[in-house]
Amino acid sequence: MFLPFKDHLKEHFPKVEQSRILVAISGGVDSVVLAHLCKKANLDISLAHCNFHLRGEESEGDEAFVLELADALEVEVFIESFETEAYARSKKISIQMAARELRYHWFEELRETLDFDYIFTAHHANDNLETFLINLVRGTGLEGLTGIPEKNGAILRPLLSFSRAEIEEYAHNSHLKWREDSSNASGKYMRNKIRQEVVPKLLELNPQLLESFNNTQEHLQQSAVLVEDYISALFPRIAKQEDYGYSFRIKMLKTIPNVRAVMYQLFKSFGFTEWNDVYELLEAQPGKIVYSKTHRLIKDREKLLLTTLSSEDEREYEILAEEEVVMLPMGTFQFETARELSEVGKDSIFLDQNKLKFPLTVRKWEEGDHFHPFGMKGKKKLSKFFKDEKLSLPEKENCWLLCSDDEIVWVIGYRADARFGVDEKTSTILKLTFTP
Amino acid sequence: MFLPFKDHLKEHFPKVEQSRILVAISGGVDSVVLAHLCKKANLDISLAHCNFHLRGEESEGDEAFVLELADALEVEVFIESFETEAYARSKKISIQMAARELRYHWFEELRETLDFDYIFTAHHANDNLETFLINLVRGTGLEGLTGIPEKNGAILRPLLSFSRAEIEEYAHNSHLKWREDSSNASGKYMRNKIRQEVVPKLLELNPQLLESFNNTQEHLQQSAVLVEDYISALFPRIAKQEDYGYSFRIKMLKTIPNVRAVMYQLFKSFGFTEWNDVYELLEAQPGKIVYSKTHRLIKDREKLLLTTLSSEDEREYEILAEEEVVMLPMGTFQFETARELSEVGKDSIFLDQNKLKFPLTVRKWEEGDHFHPFGMKGKKKLSKFFKDEKLSLPEKENCWLLCSDDEIVWVIGYRADARFGVDEKTSTILKLTFTP
C-alpha cells in the first residue's frame, strides 16, 4: 500500500516544508507512521510524548520506546510526565478530558517557547467516523457530528484523510514497530465496539465510506461555521453585556425567525439541558429561572438575563482599617479624609469616621436586611428598596453591601445609610470611593 | 406494550381532534397500526391507498386488503392506480422517486378537493435513523442527516417518535393483520442491511438510541433552519435577479466570512457537484464556467452568473405575417403601421414594410452572424458588437435576433439593422414593438 503522504502535504499544507514541526507521539501505530512519513518527507520534526502515568509499567515502556524511536529517526524528543488522575480530580473532569487538556496545553507551551510552527497529530479518518457514531449513539447536535478538523490554529492532522487500514498496512509493509495500547478504559468500550462491529458493516455497504465521510465532514463543518456566523451576526443586535453577564431583550428575540433554534445556539455552551424550559422562558412569568450546572437564565420583565452561578458570593470580605486603598475581589475601596462635603457620583459617599467600627465587612445582601436610606426618615427593608429602584435579580445579586458591626453603611453604588453620615458633631470626614 | 398515542397527539398536534384527516395507507404494519390508533382515538379519518402496480398480484392483494380494512374500520377509502414505471421513464427519475412524487401529489389533490385538514403518514423513528445512516454511508451534508420532519405543511407524522419495535409489538398484541412487502427492490438492499445488521449493534450500545436520536434530529433540524435563515438574510445583499437567472457580485461575496460554505448553500440546490471548481470561480479568469446537469455558473468580469441550461434555445420561431400581435415563447411582437417616425425606446423599431420577406424568423445568435448596425456605416460582426456593448455571456445567450431571409433585421432590445430601416423610398412604415 502506497501512502501518498508527500503529495497530500503539498496539496493540503503547502507551507509545512519550510517549517519547524512538533509531532505528537504516543508510540501507537498511527503516530509512529506519522513520524516515519514526516522523516521520509524530509520535514524538520521533533517528537513530543506525554507520559500520563495511567498504565503503570506500560506507560514507562511507551516512554522508553519513544526515546528509542527518536534515536533511530535522529530527531529531537521532548517527554513530559503528568499527574493525570490528580489533575482530573482537582478539575472534576474525566481522565480522558484531563489527558486531553494536559496534552494540548503542553504542546502549545512547547510550540511557543521553542518556536515550532506547527503541531502534527496522527488522527485519521476512522477516528472521526468513530467519534461521529459514538456521539450519534449518545445523542448529539451538529457540533457532535463535525469531528476533529484537519487544521485548527497551529494544530494540523495530516493523516485525517487516510483510513486506519491504510495506515496499518503502511506500518506492516514498512516493517515498523509500535506499541499496542492494552488499556480497556471504560470510555474505550464503545469506541472498540463501533470500530470492530459497526464500521465494518458500513464498509461492506460502501467500500469508499471513508472518502465519502470526509466529504460529509467538510459539508457539516461548513454548515456549522455558517450557524456560528449567523449567531455572531445576530449577537450584537440581541445581546447586551452587563456587569453580571448578558441581557437579551425579549421583544427583539421574538422578531427573529426560529427563535428556539437561535436560543439553543446562544445558550448551549453554558451547559443548559432542559431546552423546553429555556424556550418557555420567553412567555414565562417574570422571576422564572432555568439553571444549568454553571449558569442561570432568568426571565426579567422585558429581558432574559444570563448570569454565572458563583459560589464566591457567600463569602464576606473585611476592610481592617482605613488604609488608603483596599483591594477586594469586587473592586477597590479608597479612603480619603475630606475637609468638607462636595458633589459626588454614585460611587462615592461621605462618612463620619467616628461612627465606623473597623473591621468593616463587605458582603452580599440577605433576606431581612434593612437600612436607613440617606434622604429618608426611618428604616427600610433592602428588598423593598431594590424593588422601588427596579433592580433586576442579577443586579440585586451583584450588589455589595458595606457594613459596620453588621449594620449597612452603604448599598454600594446605590445609596448611603443615614446613620453613618456626616452631621454637626462630625470631627473627621472620610470620603470613600468604590471602583468596581 | 402500551402506545401512548392519544397523549402524544394531544401534546404534538393539539388541533387534530377537530380535523378531517387523510391517512396514507400501504397495507404494511406501520400504516395499519396508524389507522387503528387513529380510529381508537376517535379521529375523523379516511384512508388513501396508492396502487403503484409494481409487484403484480401482490399490488392487487394490497389494494383488496386496504378495502377490507376500511370496511372493518368503517371509514371511507380512496384508491388510485398509477403508471409508476412509465412516469419514472418520462421524468427520468428512479421508480422510488416517481412513486414518492405521485403519492404526495395525489394526497395533496385529495386534501384540497375534499377539504381534508391533514394528511397522516406512518413514518417512525427507525425510518429516520435508517435514512440518516444510508445517507451517511453514501456521503451527504446536513440536509441528508435531518430526516423527515414530524410536521411539514399539512403532512403530519404522528408515529415519528415511536420505534419500529413499539409499533410491531402493538400490532401483535392487538392481533392486527397487515401485508408483508416482499419486494427486494435494489434500493431496499441497503436499508434492509442497515435495519438488520447496523441498527441492532447501535441499540446494544444505547437501548434508548431512538429517543436520543429524536433529540439529535431536532437539534440538526434547528441547525439546518438557521443555515437557511442566514442564507435568506444574506441573499438579497449578494444576489440580483436577472432575465437569465441570478448574478452575484464577487466583491460582495468576498466580504462574507466562510464564503465557500455560503457558496455551497447557495448553489447546492442547482445540482452542482464539483465544489472545488465552483469555489475557484471566485478567482478564475472571466469566461470560466462550471456546469451542473441543469445549470451553469459563469465567471463574468465582476460577477458570478447563474443560468439554467435550456435546450429550447436552439429552436427557430417564425412570424408568418404582420398580424397585429404575434406571441412567441420569448415575448410578444406587435406590428402597427405608422405615419411617421417618432422617438421610441429600445423595445421598438421602425421598418420599411417592403424590405421584409415574410415569414420572418426569430432565433438565437450564432458565431459568424453579422449585421449593419443602425447609425453605423457598413457591417459588423455580432460578436464584436456584443463585446463593444459589454454584454455578459448570459445576456448574449439570452438575446434574440429577428431575421428576414436570414439577414438580421433587429438585435432585439439592442440595435436595429440599417438595411431594413425607413428611407425616402419607403411607402409603408411599420412600427414593431417587442414585449418580453
> Biggest sheet of chain A, open or closed, and with what strands and sense?
6 strands, mixed
End-to-end gap of chain A: 65 Å
Query: Rg of chain A from C-alpha positions?
Result: 30 Å
CATH structural architecture of the largest domain in chain A: 3-Layer(aba) Sandwich
What class, by secondary structure content of chain A? alpha+beta
Please report the first level of CATH classification, the CATH class of the largest domain in chain A.
Answer: Alpha Beta
Protein name (chains A, B): tRNA(Ile)-lysidine synthase
GO cellular component, one term (chains A, B): cytoplasm
EC number (chains A, B): 6.3.4.19
GO molecular function, one term (chains A, B): tRNA(Ile)-lysidine synthase activity
Structure write-up:
Two copies of one chain form a homodimer. Chain A contains 15 helices and 22 strands. With 436 residues, chain A is an alpha+beta fold. Chain A has three domains: 202 residues, Rossmann fold, CATH 3.40.50.620; 66 residues, no CATH class; 121 residues, no CATH class. In chain A, the strands form five sheets. A six-stranded mixed sheet of chain A has the order 3-2-1-4-6-5, sandwiched between helices. In chain A, strands 7-8-11-10-9 form a five-stranded antiparallel sheet. In chain A, a hairpin with an 8-residue loop joins β17 and β18. In chain A, α4 packs across α5 and α6 crosses α9. The longest helix of chain A is centred in the middle third of the chain and has 30 residues. Chain A is elongated. Chains A and B meet through α6, α7, α9, α10 and α12 of A and α6, α7, α9, α10 and α12 of B. Chains A, B: Pfam families: ATP_bind_3, TilS_C. Chains A, B: It catalyses: cytidine(34) in tRNA(Ile2) + L-lysine + ATP = lysidine(34) in tRNA(Ile2) + AMP + diphosphate + H(+). Chains A, B: Keywords: ATP-binding, Cytoplasm, Ligase, Nucleotide-binding, tRNA processing. Chains A, B: Its main location: cytoplasm. Chains A, B: Its EC number is 6.3.4.19.
